[in-house]
Amino acid sequence: CKPGYFNLDPNNPQGCTACFCFQHSSVCDSAEGYSVHTISSTFERGDEEWSGQQQDGSTVSVQWSPSRQEVSLMSENYQRLYLVAPEKFLGNQILSYGQNLSMDFRVERRDTRLSTEDLILEGANMKVAVPLIVQGNAYPNENMQTYVFRLQEQPGYSWRPFISDSDFQKLLHNLTAIKIRGTYSERSAGYLDNVSLVTARRGPGVPARWVEQCTCPPGYQGQHCEQCTLGYRRAQPELGPFSSCEICNCHRHSDACHPDTGNTGNTGITGFIDCSNSCSYCVLKQF
């Protein structure tokens, strides 16, 4: 891989993956100690907290079939209804970047009206979506078929709107919704089974070589350069790990400050000195 990229992978059409490192470094390599992990719903014992939603956000009922072990939605008209993933699929899913989200899906009848938003991902105040039939997937019919979507921003994967690789990872870092369209025609049902999200976790198993280990510049630390080192603070705390780190400004009264707020503290026998960002004034707190 050329500088700024890592993990030459035969399963990746792009070959190598760009270093993410919360945009603080372009030097990285594959992290050790991570193995392939899958988050899944097989609906063997219930709906597994999947919910139904209309386009306007209002809720609709999800049906679970104990015999077929699948969930479904029934439409009354041509309005799209979505199956919404539960919490275990959401949150920080950055380790799923470049990996697959897959599912088994069928419809009651073939009167299928596809859209540009058959699968929707939301997070970090962004939204991307794709039609069901992109990335080599077939039109839905009465038989269960497997649909696979690669979570990467490359043009051939047809995510719209097109966003940068760093924004796609930012979305996955704070994934707030996965919505799978469940209905495609009037008075017809759609059936979902075997939803799977490939990710990674620490521990033994098949190595997950797509997980990065970053080499951080001065002021940054952590596997992904997501933390400020001692003597540095967030320049824009509201951005969290995406904020740059800057040297603490304490007028030579302290060598360290809180990495997020910039406040400086020294613990003594009589109390705690709580200083402002610039250490221009202090307040003595008794305890």
Account of the 3D structure:
The protein is mostly beta strands and 287 residues long. The chain is 3% helix and 37% strand. The protein is built from 1 helix and 23 strands. The strands form 7 sheets. Strands 4, 7, 8, 10, 13 and 15 form a 6-stranded antiparallel sheet that branches. Strands 6-5-9-14-11-12 form a 6-stranded antiparallel sheet. It has a 3-stranded antiparallel sheet with strand order 21-22-23, with no helix packed on it. A hairpin with a 2-residue loop joins strand 11 (119-123) and strand 12. The chain is elongated. The N and C termini lie far apart (56 Å).
What is this structure, in a nutshell?
Helices cover 3% and strands 37% of the residues. With 287 residues, it is mainly beta. Residues 45-213 form the Laminin IV type A domain.
List keywords for this structure.
287 residues, mainly beta, six-stranded antiparallel beta sheet, 1 helix, 23 strands
